[in-house]
Amino acid sequence: MGIDEQQLLDLPRYQTSAAFSPLERLVLDLSVAMARTPADVPAELRARLDQHLDQAQQVELAAAIAWENYRARFNRVFGVRPAGFSEGAFCVLPEG
Predict the structure, then answer these.
(1) pLDDT band at 91 (very low <50, low <70, confident <90, very high)
(2) Rounded CA gap, 24 and 33, in Å?
(3) Does the residue 14 lie in any domain?
(4) 92 lies in a domain?
């Protein structure tokens, strides 16, 4: 799926992890910003995105992030739980 085991393990520390490229960290920053309530994407983050992605790429990326946020929030409302597809291989929890 394009993510390796080290990235899964380092996801809570993506901003400082060598497992992620600068663009991957930037995309994760956008994901975090879009997941906030209310969603807040600072102009500085948009400017950094402009340096790496064209407008069409940014639209596609934002749509994918928005869709996953929608699915996660929808599932929470109805108590949809993981279906066991990872077979217990990973359970990445936020640090803190």
Answers:
(1) low
(2) 14
(3) yes
(4) no
Asked whether the predicted pLDDT for residue 70 surpasses 80, the reply is: yes
**Owning domain of residue 16:** 5-77
Q: Is the pLDDT of residue 96 over 60?
A: no
Q: Is residue 36 part of a domain?
A: yes
Q: What is the pTM of this model?
A: 0.81
Of 77, 82, 80, residue with least CA distance to 93:
82
Question: How many domains, the chain?
Answer: 1
3-state secondary structure the chain: CCCCHHHHHHHHHCCCCCCCCHHHHHHHHHHHHHHCCCCCCCHHHHHHHHCCCCHHHHHHHHHHHHHHHHHHHHHHHCCCCCCCCCCCCCCCCCCC
- Least Cα distance to 68 among 31, 33, 43 occurs for 31
